[in-house]
Structure formats: C-alpha cells, structure tokens
Amino acid sequence: MRMRDGMTTTEQWESFWRAAPPAPGSVFWDAGPEHTVARQLPLFAPHFSAGLPVVDAGCGNGTQSVILAAHFARVVGVDFSPAAIARARELSDTGGAEFRVLDLTDAQAAAALHAELGDVHVYMRGVLHQCTPEGRARVAASLAVLLGARGRAFLVEPAVAAKDTLTELMRRPEGPPESLAAVFTHGLTPMEMDDAEVGVVCEAAGLAVFAAGREPLRTVEHGADGAPVELPSQWLVVGKG
Fold first, then answer.
1. Which residues contact 184 (CB under 8 A, 6 or more apart)?
2. Which of 111, 123, 105 is CA-nearest to residue 201?
3. pLDDT score at 92
4. pTM of the full structure
5. Looking at residue 185, what is its pLDDT?
6. Which residue has the higher pLDDT, 95 or 147?
7. Burial of 88 (0-12, 13-18, 19+ CB in 10 A)
8. Of 72, 90, 113, 231, which is closest to residue 167 (Cα–Cα)?
9. Residues 45-66: tens digit of each pLDDT
10. In a 10 Å sphere around its CB, with 0-12 CB exposed, 13-18 middle and 19+ buried, how is residue 23 labelled?
11. Residue 128: CB partners within 8 Å, gap ≥ 6?
12. Which residue did the predictor score with more confidence, 22 or 229?
C-alpha cells in the first residue's frame, strides 16, 4: 500500500519504531497496562472462553501482550513491523508472550497462523483507524479466519470525537507533545473513519457484534491541569454468530 512521499505504510511504521525512544511512556498510545488491558479486561474476559490462545494484533512493542499473558495461557503478539517486534522481544520480561511479524492484511499469513494455533481470541487496539478502507476490509477478513468458529475479538478504536482532542494537543501554544509529534512526523496520520464503520466492516466479514460500548483510551500525555489525556473511544466484541 503506497502512501505519501512514496513511502509504504510498512516503511513508515518501521521508521517510527526504529526512532521511538525505548523508555516506557515515550510512545503516545503506550500507556501502562493498568490503564489499558487491566481496565478493559472486565469488558472482554467474559467473552474469551478458556483454552484458546490470544493473539495481540498490532502489538507494537509488546506492552499489552505481557499483561495479557498473565491472564491467558498462551499469548502471541503480532505486528507487521519487524522493528516493533524486535522491541517486543527485547523486553526484560515477556511474561511468556511470544512475538511474531505478521501482516493482518495478508490473508495467507492469517490462514497459516490459524492452521498452527487453531481458533484464537484476538485483542486489537487502534489498528483499523490507521488502515485505508480496503485495508480495514482485509484486516476484518483475517480476523474472521483467526477466530474461526469459537474465537472472539475485542476491538478498540478511537471515536470520531478523538480528533478534537488530538487537534487541541497539536495546537498547544508550547507546541505538541513530543510523543504525538513523532506520530505525525512519520506520516502515521489517522484515516477518517466513522464510529459505525467498525461494526460495519466486521459484519461484512461475517462477524457478529456481541457487545459494544465506550471507554476512554488513555495516552501517556497529560493536560495543563495534570490530568491524563484520554481519547474518546469505542469497543466491540465480535465473532462468528
């Protein structure tokens, strides 16, 4: 998929992860698991039947995969950026999570992983809004393959209203926070995506929506009042009907 300035999406993410500082809290969305997975667990755990592996799709540097591994017997973090997977594998304690390079828009790669692991549950945070409409359809199709008949996916995506929060941060008098500026510097601008599109693209791939709601998505930044910056977000649990 070719993007601005002749760079592919993969190259942009590689550039981002190679340049990202390794210290915790340096990546805009990489809030501590106590503010992400720990808060979200009550939303999806009742839908994740015991015994199935969990795939952390778009795992980045693996922060959330490690915490997922504390709750599920087998966790495999996948990301299409080799640089991100290298970061994840460098964690001092992976908690037993495994990490692999995998492009969710590649149907054959998804089928190969399903052939190896069988039906899985999927945790996926903030992936679809970075995809083109065609890419979203491909990701949803791969999810359907990975889930099989028994798996469920927990999807979290920024809501349309998150754009206002991001705009305010970018227009701060002192300049945008470094973690957010880095996202735009590497050309990782979010695509326009209506809130309803997440469910629509899943249903087009043969996935039913079992639960849905709203939950703020914590970032590593803080406002002038010291309060953490949270993006309005939505979540869905989907799977085969």
1. 170, 176
2. 105
3. 81
4. 0.93
5. 87
6. 147
7. buried
8. 231
9. 999 999 999 999 999 999 999 9
10. exposed
11. 136, 139, 155, 157, 193, 197, 198, 201
12. 229
- 167 Cβ partners below 8 Å, 6+ apart? none
Residue 161 near residue 147, CB atoms below 8 Å: no
Scan for tokens 């778009």, then name that residue.
58
* Residue matched to tokens 């492009």: 103
Higher local confidence (pLDDT), 92 or 100: 100
> pLDDT per residue over 3-15, tens digit each?
334 445 778 899 9
Task: Find the length of the chain.
Answer: 241
Report the SS3 class of residue 175.
coil
**In which order are the strands placed within the sheet that holds 54-57?**
98-101, 75-79, 54-57, 121-125, 152-158, 233-239, 208-214
For 136-156, how does the pLDDT look when each residue is reduced to its tens digit (9 = 90+)? 999 999 999 999 999 999 999
pLDDT at 186 over 90: no
- pLDDT for position 11: 86
Q: Could you tell me the two tokens for 62?
A: 């693996």
Q: Which two tokens stand for residue 122?
A: 């999927």
Q: Which of 222, 218, 221 is nearest to 34 (CA)?
A: 218
Q: What is the largest CA-CA distance in the chain?
A: 52
Instruction: Pull the structure tokens for residue 81.
Output: 């950026």
Give start and end residues of each alpha helix (H) in the chain.
9-19, 37-44, 63-68, 82-89, 107-117, 133-147, 162-170, 178-185, 197-204
